[in-house]
Amino acid sequence: MPTRFAPRGAASPSAAPPIDAALLAYLHTTIGSEIDYKDAPREIVGGFETTTFAFSLTGAPTELSGPLILRRHQREGDPELARVESRVQNGLAELGFPAPRVSTVCTDAGVLGGAFTIMERVRGRTMMEAMLGPGVFRISAVLGRLHAQLHGIDADLLRSRLLGAAARPAGFGLALDADEIARFVDEAQLDGLRDGMRWLTDHRPAPPLRLAACHGDFHPINIMMSGRDVTGVLDWSSMRIGDPAWDVGASVALLGYGPVNVPRVLYPSVTWLRLRLVGRYLRAYAEGRPLDRARVQYYEAMRLLLFLCEAGFHRRTVAGVIAPTSKPTPFHQPAALNAIARRFAAITAVATSLPERA
Predict the structure, then answer these.
(1) Separation between Cα atoms, residue 304 and residue 337, nearest integer Å
(2) CATH number, position 191
(3) Could you tell me the maximum CA-CA distance found in the chain, to the nearest angstrom?
(4) What per-residue confidence (pLDDT) applies to 276?
(5) What letter does residue 192 receive in the DSSP assignment?
(6) Domain containing 75: what range?
(7) Which among 108, 117, 196, 357 would be 20 to 30 A from 298, CA to CA?
């Protein structure tokens, strides 16, 4: 659930070359002419900024011999992101964290219509699917323990593996999230969010005592399970070495108030259940790592305001006030937006408002 929503030049998936022939031609050129498809690429569920394909090969070397995933970036400027994601995933896998290993990175957008990576396909189903049953509370505790495991990784060791002898990769490090939100608020003329933005600026916490490997989008859709076992954590495009409270706060906001497609009449009941899951997640996390609740709430408020900002940004584009964005927004249900605004006010004592819908 990425939150990059400023206008950007995006490569249209429909304008990309046919994936089957183009990918096979690339593999013939870079690896060997004996490679062929065992299972041709088929598109599977992906994000707003990537298109994802599952496939398998014959005649391939060991690292490409099992079920594979191709992840194609759709935006301009993503070649470096594809390279950084591959370093992140391989570095974490080497340190024992369940991130899928990347075998191939191509930054030439002309090959498939965008930079892409090829990685092992993680077995199982998403944690979200696994939660739709009697084990829902147990699995929310698994989520908390897994997040604590990620934050327990030696961040300095991971940083050294990611950087190597190269220059610091773009997008890798502590991001100024509050400053980014302020820019979006100004650009889209979201006057009803300015007081919230000022609260974030005035209450920015001191630098953390310890940095951690942070995912940035850690929620059940990005985690794969087989039975009771976690088999992989996906989508590292928002990863950074930063404050672990930033990562936990983002997850709390996503778990409690991220977009869900349910009838309005069911929204209060679903929200009640989600907040119980948040409690189980936080308790399980605290069993493995220290948890500063005040810092977590600050970063929860930051992500909530980003949700509202995304919704407001989208309304401004529909109204023709600003240029179209590179993706639609999942934040459009009035009940969801009202719940987000109420939670933000509960943390900050600041009221917010959005532009009227066109």
Answers:
(1) 10
(2) 3.90.1200.10
(3) 64
(4) 93
(5) G
(6) 13-120
(7) 357
How many CA atoms are closer than 13 Å to the CA of 91, on its beta-carbon side? 24
Residue 297 falls inside a structural domain? yes
CA 161 to CA 91: how far, in whole Å?
6
Which position has the token pair 């699995």?
139
Strands 223-226 and 125-126, bridge-based pairing: antiparallel
Name the amino acid, one letter, at 317. Answer: T
Report helix angle 79-94 to 155-163, nearest 10.
130
- The whole-number pLDDT of residue 118 equals 97
Helix 194-202 vs helix 177-187: crossing angle, to nearest 10:
160
Residue 258 shares a structural domain with residue 297: yes
d(CA 299, CA 288): 20
**What averages of pLDDT result for each successive group of 10 residues across the chain (358 residues)?**
42 58 96 95 78 95 95 72 88 95 93 93 92 84 97 91 52 58 90 96 92 94 93 92 95 92 81 92 97 96 94 89 73 89 98 91
Residue 217: the pLDDT is 93
- State the DSSP H helix or E strand holding residue 80, giving kind and residue range, or none if neither: helix 79-94
- DSSP class of residue 193 equals G
Distance, CA of 139 to CA of 252 (rounded, Å): 15
> Tokens standing for 351?
């009221």
Confidence (pLDDT) at 166 = 44
Label residue 72 exposed, middle or buried (CB < 10 Å: 0-12, 13-18, 19+). Answer: buried
Specify whether the CB–CB gap between 287 and 145 falls below 8 A: yes
Q: Do 236 and 274 fall within a single domain? A: yes
CA distance 238 to 257: 19
Q: How buried is residue 266: exposed, middle or buried, by Cβ count under 10 Å (0-12/13-18/19+)?
A: exposed
> Is residue 190 in some structural domain?
yes
Burial class (CB in 10 A: 0-12, 13-18, 19+), 333: middle
Query: What Å distances lie between residue 2 and 190, 245, 258, 354, CA to CA?
Result: 20, 18, 11, 20
Which pLDDT does position 17 carry in this prediction? 55
Tell me what pLDDT residue 165 has. Answer: 37
Phi, then psi, of 125 in degrees rounded to 5: -130, 170
Is 103 in the same domain as 218?
Answer: no
pTM (predicted TM-score)? 0.88
